[in-house]
Write a structure and sequence with these properties.
By secondary structure, the protein is of the alpha/beta class. The protein has 10 helices and 14 strands. Bound molecules: adenosine-5'-triphosphate (ATP). Keywords: ATP-binding, Nucleotide-binding, Transport.
Length: 308
């Protein structure tokens, strides 16, 4: 699939010298949902702002729909909708006008049918004449999405769409995102929530310290999550893994009191039975066994720790 957004060696140093982006490369495919996962201060908002032309990079280049964000700013900005983290709506304005004005700001001719369609799609149809101040927090977030879609962008950036939102509303937002994807919009969202990335993304990018550490298909991540670990507690510490068990690639704990065996739950055989027999044959006595499923969270925490 062709890239709709292409980010090459992107750098951003803020005045004062702090480098929030340190050479980011990222290809976003048309029609996908990409989740950018990263801890506070990782550079997610800076990356989005730079692609949207709000923040000027100090190095590298970005194209959107083939246009350069610096030399063809207008063309790229027209292709992008941005849903910001903060709710910044005019409280006394109606929902319809809020969204329709936003379209006007992009120089697009008035199109009430289109605005009504997105309001319906976001379940705001019956609120179109309500004032913003009369809406719940969840509805205000939907208005932000409607505003971002008002000029018919092809790419939608959602910056922490469900931060501070309750579980039910979060699921609601996930449904909205899935519907937008079905309507052909490419979606990039930033999130702290690993389960959010797991639930809705096609691909997941992990960002930390201004660098993209990994971008992977969610299904590949699922395959990684298929890995399980068996922790074997021993009655006596071992100084090293016995040579007879070398084939199992066991990890020895620092105190020598346990060994961890990693196996693939998707495989035909786990190898556990033979391992336990070989352990006994090597003269080791077990006091306990524990299994642990590695999750996207483990992968994420491990990656972020490595680069901390
Ligand atoms: N205008 C600015 N001037 C100086 N430093 C900034 C500025 N904006 C952001 N930073 C710094 O750049 C780093 C990345 O910030 P950014 O907001 O992009 O992170 P983030 O991943 O979006 O974090 P969060 O999840 O907390 O929103 C942070 O260390 C932040 O303090």
């Amino acid at each position: 699939m062709p890239s709709i957004v292409s980010v090459e060696n992107l750098r951003k140093a803020y005045p004062g010298g702090f480098e929030a982006l340190k050479g980011v490369n990222l290809e976003i495919e048309e029609g996908e949902i990409l989740a950018l996962l990263g801890p506070n201060g990782a550079g997610k908002t800076t990356l989005i702002s730079t692609v949207c032309g709000i923040t000027v990079p100090t190095g590298g280049s970005i194209t959107v729909g083939g246009f350069d964000t610096l030399t063809d700013y207008r063309a790229t900005r027209d292709l992008i909708g941005l849903v910001p983290q903060e709710i910044n709506l005019e409280p006394f304005e109606t929902v319809f006008n809020t969204v329709s004005f936003s379209r006007g700001l992009f120089g697009k001719p008035r199109n009430d049918d289109y605005i009504n369609r997105i309001l319906d799609q976001l379940s705001l149809g019956d609120k179109k004449n309500s004032k913003i101040m009369a809406l719940s927090g969840g509805m205000k977030r939907r208005v932000l999405i409607a505003k971002a879609l008002s000029h018919e962008p092809r790419v939608l950036f959602l910056d922490e769409p469900t931060a501070g939102v309750d579980v039910e509303l979060r699921k609601d937002m996930w449904d909205v995102v899935a519907e937008l994807k079905a309507a052909g919009v490419t979606i990039i969202l930033t999130t702290h929530y690993i389960e959010e990335a797991e639930a809705i993304a096609d691909r997941v990018g992990v960002i930390n310290g201004g660098q993209i550490l990994l971008v992977q298909d969610k299904s590949e991540m699922m395959a990684q999550m298929g890995q399980k670990q068996l922790q074997i507690s021993l009655s006596e510490a071992v100084a090293e893994v016995p040579a007879a068990l070398a084939g199992y690639e066991l990890d020895r704990a620092d105190d020598g009191l346990s060994l961890t065996y990693t196996y693939d739950t998707n495989g035909e055989r786990t190898g556990i039975t033979t391992l336990l027999n070989d352990l006994a044959a090597a003269g080791l006595t077990m006091t306990d066994l524990q299994t642990k499923q590695s999750s996207l969270e483990d992968i994420f925490v491990g990656l972020v720790k490595e680069t901390a």
